[in-house]
Amino acid sequence: MVTEHTNSQQHLVSGWVEEFRPFSKNGQCANYIPALAEKNPLQLAISIVGPSNNEMKAGDTTELFTLQSVSKVVTFILACMDRGLPYVLERVDVEPTGDTFNSIIRLESHRPGKPFNPMINAGAITVSSMLSGISPQEKIEKILYFLEQMVGKKLKVNEEVFQSEWQTANRNRSLAYYLMDSGFLDCPVEEALEVYLKQCAIEVNVSDLAMIGLVIANDGYHPQLKTQLFPKQVAKLAKALMVTCGMYNASGKFSAFIGLPAKSGVSGAILAAVPSHASLNSPFPDGCGIGIYGPAIDSIGNSVAGVKLLKHLATEWDMNIF
Amino acid sequence: MVTEHTNSQQHLVSGWVEEFRPFSKNGQCANYIPALAEKNPLQLAISIVGPSNNEMKAGDTTELFTLQSVSKVVTFILACMDRGLPYVLERVDVEPTGDTFNSIIRLESHRPGKPFNPMINAGAITVSSMLSGISPQEKIEKILYFLEQMVGKKLKVNEEVFQSEWQTANRNRSLAYYLMDSGFLDCPVEEALEVYLKQCAIEVNVSDLAMIGLVIANDGYHPQLKTQLFPKQVAKLAKALMVTCGMYNASGKFSAFIGLPAKSGVSGAILAAVPSHASLNSPFPDGCGIGIYGPAIDSIGNSVAGVKLLKHLATEWDMNIF
Amino acid sequence: MVTEHTNSQQHLVSGWVEEFRPFSKNGQCANYIPALAEKNPLQLAISIVGPSNNEMKAGDTTELFTLQSVSKVVTFILACMDRGLPYVLERVDVEPTGDTFNSIIRLESHRPGKPFNPMINAGAITVSSMLSGISPQEKIEKILYFLEQMVGKKLKVNEEVFQSEWQTANRNRSLAYYLMDSGFLDCPVEEALEVYLKQCAIEVNVSDLAMIGLVIANDGYHPQLKTQLFPKQVAKLAKALMVTCGMYNASGKFSAFIGLPAKSGVSGAILAAVPSHASLNSPFPDGCGIGIYGPAIDSIGNSVAGVKLLKHLATEWDMNIF
Amino acid sequence: MVTEHTNSQQHLVSGWVEEFRPFSKNGQCANYIPALAEKNPLQLAISIVGPSNNEMKAGDTTELFTLQSVSKVVTFILACMDRGLPYVLERVDVEPTGDTFNSIIRLESHRPGKPFNPMINAGAITVSSMLSGISPQEKIEKILYFLEQMVGKKLKVNEEVFQSEWQTANRNRSLAYYLMDSGFLDCPVEEALEVYLKQCAIEVNVSDLAMIGLVIANDGYHPQLKTQLFPKQVAKLAKALMVTCGMYNASGKFSAFIGLPAKSGVSGAILAAVPSHASLNSPFPDGCGIGIYGPAIDSIGNSVAGVKLLKHLATEWDMNIF
């Protein structure tokens, strides 16, 4: 029964991918990061993974892409484990801003210049600077190890993408030096940036993304490993941040019309974490993680086709936290 | 069994009210609204109402207070019913801002000056201007009738509070004239302000507040009336807005650490809407509405003791949408 | 000799008016004030008046137009005489902003919300509110009497323009209510606005404007009346404000490339005050006042042809305070 | 006759230095630059130099100090000579801002992020990046050579001050990377910063400062060398900038109450350029340059005693451009 049901659902999901793929034409690949600009804008892929290792996937599922801003959720969780919540919250707030992800204005206009949340670049750079480790390499290894626990395989940094971003990271350098000046950076600027830009360049496919989402959805508990990878409180906090700030300055509309904790990246990645209680009537009644990839993004930075696909899925399957 | 359980829980709730009442000393009654400044800052009350008409309440539950910003949720829902979602969303966005509730900056700094969300004053005034009706009185009657359906009794405007706010509404007038100038007001300024300030002055007790919360929690369906008072989609949207923008510029922290859709007012009111799926392990497994009153507010505008009480309750009862 | 010289210069000035008149096509009449939108955009006129009653004029010199923002200099001087400099400076600063004339942002972003200077609308409304008088009419009479002393004839308010602006003054009302809220308004909002909008609607021709400029250039001393109409210190202060803030957010460029104290209005009026020491080599070696009218304005609010004409004149005649 | 007059004036000037020296107590040495923090806050010195090599000086006139922001005027003039005015003005505007000297907000809030003027740090860094030269050293040599022509002796960079600022230049680095990102930097960030911070660390005494002021006052013409060192138009522009933006965000008040083109530095330096036509009744009727040093600065960055001394001098000697 379950299998049949799943098969028919799988069929539907495959159809939805093709239905929403053409919407990519309303967006374009991030052009300010050379290595991203060359991607095929019409690609679209999705993976949905439940706790009993059940997965549905469709579209360009073997395609590799970089985490970009999706990594911000991962390092935030890691920093909370590493330093403890009070230490982290002293250096980064958890308030949404309504501003673009690379905005610098609030660092000056609000005293004492504490970044507003870990999902905008300023806050994410601060978070990366907090990770323990004596070198950027050690910090990156720590991130990769944490991801390995979640996705079940060793991921790696796409050096070409990293180099591409490193060369053109002037705006992020500006943010980082500002943070350093106001005391909200925990290590030298170039170290923090190296960690930050390398974490952004970690390569995954949609199934990996879905696995990360599943552990977050599951309050930090890994259902296959049967291990609590991070505290429930941190997982709840991460999901709250994904809802209030996860989809750049369209987070409000995403919450209002889709209603799931999600985090996007300018690579076209979207990670969603669907707790069991928010998907009781879906084919994944025990919750799931969702990974989506569609490199054509809108002016705000979210995958055009990816958001449409996720909205359709959430509506059809009645997945909503509200 | 249920009753005994409830009784012991009721006892706990009463204890928590007394435990958190002293925190009021860390806040003070809103002093810029003369009629609110005279309230007893040490008052604290809570009501929790479930769909089977089961209520727990404790503290100063007979005390009457005004809705203030809590009314913003009500009029937003009403405007959506009245005008349809597209009409409303053309005139007010649903993005959080990180700014104070009475901020005017974004109306100038972001083109075309559309207010960012209906939970800040600018957006709420726009919403009030959209309500259909040929006079402020007719619009207020419509709001009161809508509330009557939810709480089961006729509420009324506290004229003294209204007059008090009307006389000192310079900042709100400034916002309203700005909105009028940029085309985001649907009726004359003075009419919109009269509606807005009268809705803020509607008087309730914590049980009334809890009933409103219950209907919102219940996706617009009134469990006693067995009627769908407003569409499910509007209810979900309202809850999303409460999470991203409901607790002024502490909404992010509230979502992060409490995790419930809620809306506060400077009168010290807090309305929370707890969907059933977010309270599966609580004494209210079918969901509930929560009304809290504690007039001593913090610098951001939220009831000091009220927030602490709600946080404790949510933690103890494992109520959380994330 | 002087007469011949003057005649040849007069001839030149007439030629310049025709030379620069076509530049009006690069601008347009202020369209947000209905009564201004109907003006003939190709009109251009200039009057230059020296202390010995010598005047050169050319172009549409009989055309009447309203003072608009040029009135801000006049009421600032009057308020200083009326209330004394310390009183005035406690309520309005004298710093340039780089912002548009009707900007509201700084009233919120800078504590305590004191308007930055009397040449932007916020500051000018505060100044108008400070004028003594028991009614708007009395205050306007005071302004008209002060102007009469300078120009030698009774001026009057163009009621049509006033009514036109009064009906559409939403942005100015927004500014005024904001100022009232933060304590920087000295009389009720509607009174301050009536005075402000009526002073803006006072009608003059270019010769009148030049006479006002002459008295300011002359440090407050009226050369024909042989009377000190206002203190030298106030005149210096007014000229400094005209240089730092007089030409809206093009004041810096105007000072840099023209180098004369000047104030413009959206009616296309420009008033310049040329002290004797800044015009030693010009046909007006004892200084002069300049009035220009060219209703086609640029996006910033300055007369397109008027600025070009004034720049040419200042360059040719070597008039520059720097 | 002249000598006697001068002697009595000299006597007066010496008295004024002692009269205003105690006001230093209302300020303090810039504490964010370690090498400046150690200065004796009670020092005060002035030099006034006229075109016939006549100098009056008083106070701690042998004290050496660094130019800091005063250097911004010098490099702006040099860049205009080097690149031509159109090239320079394409990269930096000439509008005052009302913001603090190190503000970054406008680079984001105003498109396309062109710095508002060359007297704030953002604009000054852009200017330094424009200087021709294949290395920072070559650019600095060019600045030193230009200064040598004006002051008649080879100046040098205080390496200790430079190193001190270089180590702590996070805010300036933030500005520079932002400018690089938006295309308003003409050379690599570290090069531009090295030039900028070295020009800030050039060491002078008050007589040197007065000589620079004299050449600017004199429209670029060096009276002793009898050479036009830079074009008159550039000199006028520099003086206009000093008036609208020279004294940080107190420039408006300085112009209003002192009325002279001046530029200050956080070292406590003030440079004033008094054109002959603005000092007709002073002991320097052919104009003069003024150099002042008083290291105790106010919160805005201007020498407390220095401003008071200059105001007194300007008032007593009737020096004012307005």
TrEMBL record, chains A, B, C, D:
Which Gene3D superfamilies does the UniProt entry name for this protein? 1.10.1500.10, DD-peptidase/beta-lactamase superfamily (3.40.710.10)
Q: Which domain of life is it from?
A: Bacteria
Query: Which residues make up the binding site for substrate?
Result: S69, N121, E165, N172, Y196, Y248, V266
**Keywords tagged on the record:** Acetylation, Hydrolase
Group of enzyme by EC = hydrolase
Family matches, as HAMAP family: Glutaminase
Query: Subunit structure, briefly?
Result: Homotetramer.
Q: What is this protein called?
A: Glutaminase
- What species does this protein belong to? Lysinibacillus pakistanensis
